[in-house]
Structure formats: C-alpha cells, structure tokens
Design goal:
The protein has 219 residues and is α+β, with helices and mostly antiparallel strands. The chain is 46% helix and 16% strand.
Length: 219
C-alpha cells in the first residue's frame, strides 16, 4: 500500500503529458512477437512473466508494449462477472454492499489467476504489476468511462479502471480493457479483438471518454 501511494504521488507530480505521436518512429514488432511467444505463460509467477516479456528489449516503451500486448491478447473480459457486479452495486445498500465489494474484489483476482478472465480492475492491476517488475512506473486510475462520452452531471459510482505509465519522463494513458475487445450486449458475451487505439492514446481524445473528478481530466 505504501508503494502504491508513493508512486501515485510521484507520478502526478509530472506535468508533461505524453502523446502516442512521441513513438511514431518506434517499431514495436519485436515487443509484439515476444508477447505472442509467451501466450501460454502462467500468471502464478508474475515476476518471471515480466522478465521474459521485457528483459531482451532495449527501451522502456518496447518493454511496456510487450506487457500491454500480452495482457490485452491473453486476458478475457468476464461479461457475467461484470453484469453480476452492476446488479449488486445497484441494489445492495449499507453493510450488504460493503460485504459484496470485499467479496467481489476477491472474485476478480481469483478469476484472473484461475481462468484468465477479469474486469477492468484486474486488467489495470496486471498491467501495473508486470510494469513494476520491469522497473517501470505505472499506476492504476479509478474513475468513469463511457465510449460515447462522460456526462459529469450524472456520474454515479466509479465504474472503470485504467493505467497511466511514465516513459522517458512523460505520462501516458492507456486502457487495456478497451484494447482487448468489446462487450456485446446483444450476444451477451465479450468479443475479443485487439484495439491499438487505447495504447498510449493522446490525452485530449482519451479524456473525452474517461474522467476522474479527484484529479481532473489531465488535459
């Protein structure tokens, strides 16, 4: 916990916000190939996985790319778990809600380790931990997200988590959940398809659909 708050404090001291255009000449082929090579690797030992994904890559941006691509390609969003959480958080009150939140957090990480399925919290956590073991500064941000944009007058309960990563002295935003695929309401399931749009996305675009009232929208 102390490590988390320290990193969070240091991280938000950076005023320079990076853009994906900073890496327009970077070739991520090697990073993507490494992510594909270790597709079947267990999550039981996150440090070993992080070492295999990053140790042979020369730059921090390539290391983070291998981590991000591995998570997005190998972790599936759990549609049933998402619906169950939404239902309980909208109906339960008081102590029942508190108990559910504790139970649900445990379910999220057990499902991640055992089935490689999770929701946004698990995605953001895994990206952060893999980055930490690679010597990168990365934090989880909890806030609000909606593809069609945020109406700040009706925010309600925090509903999403994503990451901010420090590379070359700048802060970059990314959303591994949205990069991994989409939830299909009509099909009642998660449709897995990598979307590179949310990898180191330009902040002015990212924060049209993501918002954190405690820190503003970082523009």
């Amino acid at each position: 916990m102390k490590r988390f708050w320290f990193i969070l404090f240091v991280f938000y001291c950076f005023s320079v916000r990076g853009q994906v255009s900073d890496f327009r000449t970077t070739n991520f082929h090697d990073a993507d190939s490494i992510a594909d090579r270790y597709a079947a690797h267990s999550l039981i030992d996150i440090k070993t996985l992080s070492d295999k994904l990053t140790s042979s890559l020369p730059t921090d941006q390539e290391k983070f790319r291998a981590i991000y691509k591995w998570v997005c390609s190998n972790i599936e969003a759990d549609y049933e778990l998402l619906i169950l959480n939404k239902k309980n958080r909208s109906t339960l009150k008081g102590e029942e809600l508190t108990y559910w939140n504790k139970t649900f957090n445990k379910m999220v990480f057990e499902t991640l380790l055992q089935e490689r399925k999770t929701i946004c919290t698990g995605y953001a956590y895994l990206v952060r931990e893999l980055a930490f073991h690679a010597g990168l500064t990365c934090v989880v941000v909890n806030g609000y997200a909606k593809p069609t944009g945020i109406d700040r007058s009706v925010l309600g309960t925090v509903n999403h988590s994503w990451n901010v990563i420090q590379l070359n002295g700048k802060s970059y935003v990314c959303d591994a959940t949205w990069s991994s695929g989409i939830f299909s309401v009509s099909a009642g399931k998660f449709l897995k398809k990598y979307n590179n749009q949310y990898f180191l996305m330009e902040p002015t675009l990212f924060y049209k659909s993501h918002y954190t009232p405690d820190q503003g929208n970082y523009n």
